[in-house]
Design goal:
With 319 residues, the chain is α/β, with parallel strands linked by helices. It has helices at 39-53, 70-77, 85-96, 135-144, 152-158, 170-182, 187-205, 226-236, 249-258; strands at residues 3-11, 15-21, 27-34, 58-66, 81-82, 102-106, 111-117, 120-127, 216-219, 240-241, 276-282, 291-297, 300-305. A five-stranded mixed sheet has the order 3-2-1-4-5. A five-stranded mixed sheet has the order 8-7-6-9-10. Helix 5 packs across helix 7 and helix 5 (152-158) crosses helix 8.
């Protein structure tokens, strides 16, 4: 008899993550890929990889999605649980560290802080406006200095005198980096200063007014950067816990949450081989003129969303 497992997908604007968990929340398979502006393509790629990794004795019984593309990909895979990022990241973190009280999360284009008491989310904040506190900013600056992203943390830890970089926004930070480089600061010190600037921006914007208490967990793609971890520890005076799967926590949380919607039918990985497309039309049912987004599997309408009332006509399949 095959053993049941749960599938979780986290579809972000920069990266898409997928995991398969056994009944004890151990990761049986995982994948991480760039979204590249095409969440359908990214989800397909994730599913194809997970299918190759999955042991023969395992069958997927529940599916959950989270992230900015959760509704779109949730319709594609028939997800039983479609959850927001706050809930998914909190559940993922608690599954690994039950006593966690603060979650710091920095992704590709946004960041968030989640406060938890006794396993319950009590407060949170998100920031998606200023790119200076995100992974995309670190990536762009690393490229400009001729470094790969995975080398940033290593360079920062070698610094003996981190440069002071303005952290208010990307424009000021980039200008300051150029000025400091021309003034003679070495690359390691510039990178360390950049990591501190990201942390300063995060704490001044996302964490402003929040009481950060340990245990503190750091999640998201940027959590793999040792320079940023050290900068958080220096600023907060707290040990920063980073799980081996910290970049997958949203997907892990989505998989765990999916178990509340168990299915008697095994998940079919064949959905990764089917054609999908989206379409949009303006509804004329009322003065709202809502833009209805439609999601098709081949020519079959799977789902639609965007209406703010129920007076509009059902979306029609475009000719």
């Amino acid at each position: 008899m095959k053993k049941a497992a749960a599938l979780g997908l986290d579809i972000g604007s920069v990266s898409t993550k997928g995991v398969i968990l056994d009944k004890d929340n151990r990761v049986l398979a995982s994948e991480y890929t760039a979204t590249e502006g095409d969440p359908i393509w990214a989800a397909k790629r994730i599913l194809q990889s997970l299918r190759k990794q999955l042991p023969d004795e395992i069958t997927i019984r529940t599916v959950g999605t989270t992230g900015s593309g959760r509704k779109l990909i949730g319709a594609m895979v028939g997800a039983g649980a479609v959850k927001n990022e706050i809930t998914a990241h909190a559940v993922g973190a608690i599954s690994r560290r039950p006593q966690v009280r603060t979650i710091l999360e920095i992704g590709g284009q946004d960041s968030k802080i989640i406060l938890i008491e006794n396993g319950v989310v009590t407060d949170y904040a998100m920031n998606s406006l200023c790119a200076a506190g995100t992974g995309a900013f670190l990536s762009s600056q690393a490229k400009r200095m001729g470094l790969s992203v995975d080398k940033l943390g290593e360079a920062a830890t070698r610094s003996q005198s981190p440069a002071k970089i303005a952290a208010r926004c990307t424009v000021f930070a980039e200008s300051d980096l150029v000025h400091k480089a021309q003034a003679g600061h070495n690359k390691d010190d510039l990178i360390a200063g950049l990591c501190r600037a990201v942390v300063g921006n995060y704490l001044n914007n996302v964490g402003k007014g929040k009481r950060i208490r340990g245990p503190v967990v750091f999640q998201g793609g940027v959590s793999k950067n040792k320079g940023v971890i050290e900068a958080f520890q220096a600023e907060l005076g707290e040990e920063i816990h980073v799980d081996a799967d910290s970049h997958l926590m949203g997907a892990i949380g989505a998989a765990i949450l999916s178990r509340s919607a168990a299915s008697d039918t095994a998940f079919d990985f064949g959905v990764a081989e089917v054609g999908y497309r989206t379409g949009a039309q303006e509804c004329a049912g009322c003065a709202n003129n809502c833009e209805i987004v439609m999601f098709f599997q081949n020519e079959t309408l799977l789902d639609s969303w965007g209406a703010r009332c129920d007076r509009g006509l059902r979306p029609r399949t475009p000719a």
